[in-house]
Amino acid sequence: MNNIRNFCIIAHIDHGKSTVADRLLMATKTLSERDFKDQVLDSMDLERERGITIKSHAIQMQYELKGTNYILNLIDTPGHVDFSYEVSRSIAACEGALLIVDATQGIQAQTISNLYLAIDHNLEIIPVMNKMDMASAMPDEVKDQIVDLIGCDRDDIIEASGKTGLGVDIILQQIVEKIPPPKGDPDAPLQALIFDSVFNSFRGIFAYFKIINGTIHTGDHVKFVATGKEYDADEIGVLKLKTEPKNKLSAGDVGYIISGIKTSREVKVGDTITQVHKPCDRAIEGFEDVKPMVFAGIYPVDADEYEELRSSMEKLQLNDASLVFEPESSVALGFGFRCGFLGLLHMEIIQERLDREFDMDVITTVPNVSFKVYTTKGDEIDVHNPSGLPAPTIIDRIEEPYINAQVISKSEFIGSIMKLCIDKRGTLKNQIYLTSDRVEVTFEMPLSEIVFDFYDKLKSISKGYASFDYHQTGYKVANLVRLDILLNGEIVDALSALIHRDHAYSFGRRICEKLKELIPRQQFDIAIQAAIGAKIIARETVKAVRKDVTAKCYGGDITRKRKLLEKQKKGKKRMRQVGNVEVPQTAFLAVLKLD
Predict the structure, then answer these.
(1) For domain 372-478, which CATH number applies: 3.90.1150.10, 3.30.70.240, 3.30.450.20, 3.30.870.10?
(2) CB of 273 within 8 A of CB of 309?
(3) What pLDDT is attached to residue 172?
C-alpha cells in the first residue's frame, strides 16, 4: 500500500487538465505514441468538440522514482458545476489533488468551489500553473492569486505546460513525495466506495470503486449497501487504457467490478460495496441521491416517434444515471416526457446526444425548477410543471429554490454584472477584490432566474471574462403566479409558466406580441391573451382574412351593403366557435428565445 498514490485534478473548464493528464500518461509510458490522441480520456465526441469533460474517468499509471516502482491512480473529474456531486465523490476516493490554474486567465469560480471540496476532504494540494508557453501568460500575478488562495510558498507552485510537456517530471515527483499513501486495513471487512459507473452494451455496468478497507476476490458474493442488492463479482480488475482483470484487489486500490448489472439505477455514485458473508458495520459517509434541479418537457416533433423517443431515453439513462424522466401529455404537443436534469449544461448535452446518437428531433419546453407548494390544509406538494399547480384558492404559500452564486470577473465589468444580478432578484452578499483588477461577488438569488438566459447575458456583458459557479442553499417563500396563454379562449398548456408576479405583466405582453407575428391568419379573428387566473393582463388580435362581400353592390341604398356585412359577421362568429388554431412549431421555439 505504501507505493500507491491516488490523486485527482481540479481545474476550471478549459484550463487544460485533460491535456496535462495526456502528458502524465505519456511520461509514465501508459500510452504508446501509436495510441496517443489529444484528450485521450475524453471518450465522447461531444466532450472533444466542446473541450469539456462530461464523464469522470480513472486510469492507472506505473512510475519509477529512485529505484522504487509506484502505482499512480488518476481519477479524472468533470469541471462543470452541474456535475459537482460526481466531483465530490471522486475527491472522496483520493488522498491528493493537482490544482491546475491557467497562467493566462488566473483563478476562476469553479476552481475555488472544487478546491473547497478537496480541502473539506483533507486532500494534499499540489499547485500547478499551466499554459506557461503562452505569450499572454502572467506568471507573477497568477502566483500571487494561488498563494492568497491556498497559503503555500511561491516556490511550491510548479510551472508547467500541457502542450510542450514542461514541468511534467516535477509534477510526477511531487505526487509521489507529497501525497500520502492510502490508509486502510486489508484484513478488515470489505468497504469500497463507488465513484463512477459506465455502461457497456456487451457486459452491462462497470462500477468504478476505491477500496477503503478489506480485500475483494473474483467470484465474491457482494452487496451494494444503499440499494440493498446482492451480486457476484464476475470480474474485478484495474483500469489502464483498457480494463485489466486481476484476481484480488485490496485496501487502497482503485478498480472496477463487473457483475452483470443491466440498469444504471442500481449502481449509485457514492454507494458502498461490501461482502455478504462478512459485511462492514457502516457505509461510507456522504452518500446522497442526486436530485435534479431543472425540469423541462421533451416531446417528439412527429407524434408517431413517441415509442422511439422512449427507447432512446432509456438507452441514454444507461449511460447517465442522473437523467430522470416520466411520461406526460400536453394538449398542444401530444405525448412526451417530463425530464429532470442536474442543470442547464446537462440539459443541453442530453438534447445534443438525443440528436446525435439516436437521430431524434425533439421540442423542449421552457425549462423550470421544482417548487414546493403548501396548501391551506398543510400538505406539501412538489411541483415540477406549471400545469401541476393546484387552484389558487387552496394555495397557502409557494417556496422556490435559492442558490448562492459566485461570479469572478474583471473589475471594469462589475457595474453591469451587479445590475444583471439585481434585475434577476438577486441580493448582494459579499464582494472581494482578489487582485487589483479581479473581483469576486457573491449573490443570493432564485434558481428559476438563472435557468432562462442568465449565463448567456453574463458572458456577453463581461466579454467572456466572467466565470460563474453556484450551489443550492435551500427554499424561500416566493410571490409566484401561473401565467397562462390563451388562444381563442383555449389554454395552450405548453406555453404556461410559473413566474414572479412583478415580471408577469411584461413577460405576458412580450409573448402575446411574439405570437401575433408567428401565428398565421385564419378565416376568423384570433384573440391571443395572457392571463393570471381569470384576469387577462395582455391581449393581441390576429385579424381575420376577409372576402370583400360588398364588391357586387354598386350604388343603391346603404342597407344593401349592411345586410351583406351582417350576414358575413354571423358566419365569422360561427366559425370562431368551431374553429381551432394550430400553433406552428416556430412559435414554441421563439418563446424559448424571447428577449
Answers:
(1) 3.30.70.240
(2) no
(3) 85
Handedness of CA 308, 312, 313, 315 (dihedral sign): positive
pLDDT of residue 544: 80
Q: Residue 116 corresponds to which cell in the numbers above? A: 473547497
Q: Which of 361, 368, 399, 408 is nearest to 386 (CA)?
A: 368
For helices 109-120 and 139-150, the axis angle rounded to 10 degrees is 40
Q: Are 363 and 333 in contact (CB under 8 A)?
A: yes
The backbone torsions φ and ψ at residue 125, rounded to the nearest 5 degrees and listed phi first, read -100, 130
Q: Which three cell numbers mark 216?
A: 475483494
Q: CATH number for 294-365: choose from 3.20.20.70, 3.40.50.720, 3.50.50.60, 3.30.70.870.
A: 3.30.70.870
Nearest-angstrom CA–CA distance, 440 and 111: 13
User: Residue 593: its pLDDT value, please?
Assistant: 60
Question: What band does 46 get if pLDDT is binned at 50, 70 and 90?
Answer: low
User: How confident is the model at residue 81, as a pLDDT?
Assistant: 63
* pLDDT of 460 above 60: yes
- 214 and 222 in contact (C-beta within 8 Å)? no
584 — pLDDT class (breaks 50, 70, 90): low
Query: What does the block give as the cell for 33?
Result: 505514441
CATH number of 4-178: 3.40.50.300
Q: What is the pLDDT of residues 559-568, one digit of tens each?
A: 888 888 888 8
Those residues whose C-beta lies under 8 Å from the C-beta of residue 108, and which sit 6 or more positions away, are 12, 15, 102, 408, 467
- For cell 457497456, the residue is 200
- Max mean pLDDT among 400-404, 518-522, 591-595 falls in 400-404
What is the spatial distance between Cα 464 and Cα 52, in angstroms, rounded to a whole number?
17
User: What's the whole-number mean pLDDT along residues 197-215?
Assistant: 83
CB neighbour list of residue 190: distance below 8 Å, 6 or more residues apart: 211, 213, 214, 215, 216, 220, 222, 273, 274, 275, 278, 280
* CATH fold of the domain at 191-275: Elongation Factor Tu (Ef-tu); domain 3 (2.40.30)
Contact 575, 525 (CB under 8 A): no
DSSP state of 253: -
Q: Provide the mean pLDDT of the chain.
A: 80
pLDDT digit string (tens) for 329-359? 877 677 888 888 887 778 878 888 888 888 8
Phi and psi, residue 114, nearest 5°: -70, -30
Interatomic CA distance for residues 107 and 408, integer angstroms: 9
Q: What are phi and psi of 439, to 5 degrees?
A: -130, 145
